[in-house]
Structure formats: structure tokens, C-alpha cells
Design brief:
alpha/beta; seven-stranded mixed sheet; six-stranded mixed sheet; globular; binds NADPH dihydro-nicotinamide-adenine-dinucleotide phosphate
């Protein structure tokens, strides 16, 4: 559990834990039991102003403003150590908060520590460059400044990983941050703030304010003291946030939804492909932007692959996310469960439900559980094929040629990720190069590491997280031109 007064969470502002000035709270529901486990404080506008002011002061006048990249690297490495030490406890909090099985939330905290270490390595390597000029006797160079105060707005589905994928590059670049977790999963991000505190960051460098999206989130996006909004969430909200950020000339990064295609060719290792297709959807109970939820299989092996996927998928253990054996947990809320089941119900008229599609009862009736679901022969104009379901649901269609597979894969408003399963070099490189997505995995799915740029094409977003480009996106360039006197 995190810092509380009674059952009520606190805010982390200017290096201290404090009560929200508003009395309003929202219950935090454990999706495995349907029961409230805490009351999330709802920050007021005054609290948001205080957090932004603290971040601005830390950026401009506090000790952080004077720190070299070398010093920032040291603090980030201390932060990574704190995350590693607290991995079990952060994992438990995240599991109770949003239902991801414990084995994954703990692992996700360790991966988060890896990310922080990787970006610590960039903190002392951020440099401008010398620019050639047409002017004799001149020197031209660039300086990279931190972009400023960053509002990091994160969703509920991977609260640790996504918070860190914003915090780590932003801090490496010298920015300060106000983090706003989702109201559905605020507890684990608050625990991250405890690690920030123990690592010894100066006050105001990292602040966490909880509250509702249209209140606290919108206040941050509109705030004149914020220089950049880094948002991860749904595409429709991303459109609104992008427009609002543009109105005030804020820099903006948007990591949005996906409906990724996972393409299996007949020559592939079909057992590996079926396992990959299962992981592509069932990890985090399908509540992941990169889910390979559209399965495209070459016609001669279509039924064979569906059989293998159904056998593996159906074998994953669904249950209490705190149990060490559970691989699939509950969905985040009852409302979301109804949405997921509704999608499958609509598509059942045109497709073939091979597996699942219903709410689970028995011992799991109090939680928000849907079993692993596979729907074959789906109409490619249906909502189930085209929209992001965000649940443990795979939809499958057959194809004949590589060109047809690419056309089907690219026929989407989204462009986040995709998979290709083949041992033919021409097919692997040809199809990977033709896919309009930010990431393509070949004979693999879900491989994520901090050095790889991650982000979306089309309506899946703007900007990249991961790699050097992620740090550079938290900087602003100044070009310096010097006319030197001849010696
Ligand atoms: P939402 O878009 O509903 O919310 C994301 C965040 O925005 C939350 O913190 C939310 O707060 C906040 N918010 C809500 N309204 C506003 C507003 N008016 N102004 C500012 N902030 C606001 O997404 P979900 O939390 O439902 O997450 C699921 C979505 O996230 C999926 O579409 C998924 O694809 C996407 N996602 C994308 C990833 C990527 O890297 N591309 C990775 C993971 C998820 P609150 O919750 O309190 O309302």
C-alpha cells in the first residue's frame, strides 16, 4: 500500500507528502474482488497549480537546475536501485490496483528499473553538435536544453512501465515532471514517488497528483506553466489533448491505441507462432496497446494454427492475480468487461466464436473476468476487427498472398505494432518493410527494451519513447552562431 491518511491517498508535491486541499475522493476498486481498497484523493486546481509551480521552481532555480548530466545520472541510478529493492511491494500494489497478475507486475517493476538505468546512461551524453556554415571564420553549434516542465499523463493498463517510460528520459534530459496517474490505477505510481523520494531527488523534480481526467488531467494540459504534455491513452482523447496542447504551443507526445496485425505464413514454425499469437493477446489480459489482436493466417495452415492457438490460449490459467499460478487476471472494471463482451457478441453474428467470449462465474464471479477468446472468420468491416477491444480477444482471418496480408494489416486507422512469422528472408524483410507500424516483430512478439524507439504511425500517436530519440524529444534546441575575428 502507499502513503495514506487513513484510507485516503496523499499527493506528492515539492518533495513532500500532503493532503489534497479538496475533500473529494474516488474509491480505488480491486478488479479481482470488486471491493474498494483505498480512496484516491482528488487534487484541486490549487493542488495542480502547486505541483506545476514546484516543478517550475525546481527547473529554474532549485539544485536540479544546477546539476550536470553526470549528477543526474547518479540520481537516476539511485532511483533504479530503489525500484529494484521495492519491486515485490510495488508489484503487489499494482496487482491489487489494476489486476495484472503478480508475476507480471513484479517483473514490470524490474523492467522499469532497467529502463531507468538505460536512460541514466544518456544523462551525461546529451550534446549539441557543430554545424557547418557557408560563412568563413564562423562557428555554429547547437545546445540542447531540457524542454521544461512535463505533464506526464498515464493510463491504467501498465501504470509502472508507462510512468517510467516518461519519467526516465525526461529526467535524463533535465526536465521536471508532474505525473498524473489514471483514476483507475493510481496506487503504483504513488509508490514510484516513494522511490523518487528515497533516491534523493531535490524537491519539485517529480510530483504526483491524482484525480479525474477531465479535472486534473485537463488542468495540466491547459496549464501555462507546463511546457510539454506526454500522454498515453486512447486515440479519441489523444486527439483532444493534441489540439489543446497545440492551442498553447506546448510540445506534445501521444502514445495511443492500436489494433495490431500478427501475420503467420505457412512456412513458419507454427508452434512458435501459435505461442507468440497467444502471448500477443493474453499478456495483461489483452489490456495492452500493442496486443496482436488481429491474427492473419495463410490459408493452407489456417485451421491448423487456429487449433493450436485455441489449445494454448485455452490452457492459460485465469484467476486471482495475487496467485503465483495466474497468467490471466480480471479486466479493469465491470464497465470495461461489458464493453469487451459486447464486441464479441456483435461479431458472433458474422464470425465463428471458437473459444470464450463470456464473463466467467463460479469463484471468479465477484471479479471482472472474461476467458481467453478466439473469434474466427471475422468480417473485416466489423467493429471487432477494426476497433481496439483491450481484452483477451483474438480475431482471425485467412489470407492467400503476402500482398494480401500487407493490405489487410495496413487497412487500419492504427499503426502501432505488428508481427510476421516466416522463415523466408524475402517475406520477412519485404513484409516488415511494407507494414505501416512503429514496431514490427519477426518470429517474435512483445520484445520490448529501452534502447528501441517505440511509438505509433497514423492514429497510434506522435513521437517516440525508447532510445536516444526519446531523450532528444525532451530537449529543445538553440543554435548558436559566432562570427570569429581572423587571427
Ligand atoms: P484514457 O485515454 O481514458 O486515459 C488516459 C489518461 O488520460 C488517464 O490518466 C486519464 O485520467 C487521463 N484523462 C482523461 N480525460 C482527460 C482529459 N480531458 N484531459 C487530460 N487527461 C485526461 O485511456 P485509458 O486509461 O482507458 O487507457 C487505455 C488506452 O491507452 C488504450 O486506448 C490504449 O491503447 C492506450 N495505451 C497506449 C499505449 C501506447 O504506448 N501507445 C500504451 C498503453 C495504453 P482518468 O483515468 O483519471 O480519467
Amino acid at each position: 500500500m502507499t502513503r495514506m491518511s487513513g484510507s485516503r491517498t496523499q499527493l506528492y508535491i515539492d518533495g513532500a507528502w500532503s493532503e489534497a486541499t479538496s475533500d473529494e475522493t474516488r474509491p480505488v476498486i480491486n478488479p479481482a474482488t470488486g471491493k474498494a481498497i483505498a480512496d484516491m484523493a482528488i487534487a484541486s486546481t490549487a493542488d495542480v497549480d502547486r505541483a506545476v509551480a514546484a516543478a517550475r521552481a525546481a527547473l529554474e532555480t532549485g539544485p536540479w537546475s544546477q546539476m550536470t548530466g553526470y549528477a543526474r545520472r547518479g540520481l537516476l541510478l539511485a532511483f533504479a536501485r530503489e525500484l529494484r529493492d521495492a519491486a515485490a511491494s510495488i508489484g503487489e500494489t499494482a496487482t491489487d490496483d489494476m489486476g495484472m497478475p503478480l508475476m507480471f507486475t513484479t517483473a514490470s517493476t524490474i523492467v522499469a528499473a532497467d529502463y531507468v538505468e538505460y536512460f541514466a546512461g544518456w544523462a551525461d551524453k546529451i550534446a549539441g553538435e557543430v554545424v557547418p556554415t557557408p560563412v568563413p571564420g564562423a562557428l555554429d553549434y547547437t545546445i540542447r536544453h531540457p524542454v521544461g516542465v512535463v505533464a506526464a499523463i498515464v493510463p491504467w493498463n501498465a501504470p509502472i512501465y508507462i510512468s517510467i517510460s516518461k519519467l526516465a528520459p525526461a529526467l535524463a534530459a533535465g526536465c521536471t515532471v508532474v505525473l498524473k496517474p489514471s483514476e483507475e490505477a493510481p496506487l503504483a505510481p504513488l509508490k514510484l514517488a516513494e522511490c523518487v523520494e528515497r533516491a534523493g531527488f531535490p524537491p519539485g523534480v517529480v510530483n504526483v497528483v491524482t484525480g479525474l481526467g477531465p479535472g486534473v488531467g485537463a488542468a495540466l494540459v491547459a496549464h501555462p506553466g507546463v511546457d510539454k504534455v506526454s500522454f498515453t491513452g486512447g486515440t479519441e482523447l489523444g486527439r483532444v489533448i493534441g489540439a489543446e496542447a497545440a492551442r498553447t504551443f506546448k510540445r506534445v507526445a501521444l502514445e495511443l491505441g492500436g489494433k495490431s496485425a500478427n501475420i503467420v505464413f505457412a512456412d513458419a514454425d507454427l508452434d512458435a507462432a501459435a505461442m507468440g499469437a497467444t502471448m500477443a493477446v493474453l499478456m495483461n489480459t489483452g489490456q495492452q496497446c500493442i496486443a496482436g489482436s488481429r491474427l492473419l493466417v495463410q490459408r493452407p495452415v489456417y485451421e491448423e494454427v487456429l487449433g493450436k492457438v485455441a489449445a494454448i490460449t485455452g490452457g492459460w490459467s485465469v484467476g486471482d492475480p495475487r496467485a503465483s499460478t495466474s497468467q490471466v487476471g480480471p479486466l479493469i472494471s465491470e464497465r470495461h468487461l461489458d464493453r469487451v463482451v459486447g464486441y464479441v457478441g456483435e461479431a458472433a453474428a458474422s464470425g465463428r466464436v471458437v473459444l470464450g467470449g463470456e464473463r466467467l462465474g463460479g469463484d471468479l464471479a465477484d471479479g471482472f473476468y472474461v476467458g481467453p477468446t478466439l473469434v474466427a472468420d471475422v468480417d473485416t468491416t466489423s467493429a471487432l476487427w477494426r476497433e481496439e477491444v483491450f481484452g483477451p480477444v483474438t480475431v482471425a482471418v485467412p489470407f492467400d498472398t503476402p500482398a494480401e496480408a500487407v493490405a489487410l494489416a495496413n487497412d487500419s486507422d492504427f499503426g502501432l505494432a505488428g508481427g510476421v512469422w516466416t522463415h523466408d528472408l524475402d517475406t520477412a524483410h519485404g513484409v516488415a518493410g511494407a507494414m505501416r507500424t512503429g514496431t514490427v516483430w519477426v518470429n517474435s512478439y512483445l520484445a520490448m527494451f529501452p534502447s528501441a524507439p517505440f511509438g505509433g504511425h497514423k492514429e497510434s500517436g506522435v513521437g517516440r519513447e525508447g532510445g536516444r530519440v526519446a531523450v532528444e524529444e525532451y530537449t529543445e534546441l538553440t543554435n548558436v552562431f559566432l562570427q570569429l575575428r581572423p587571427v
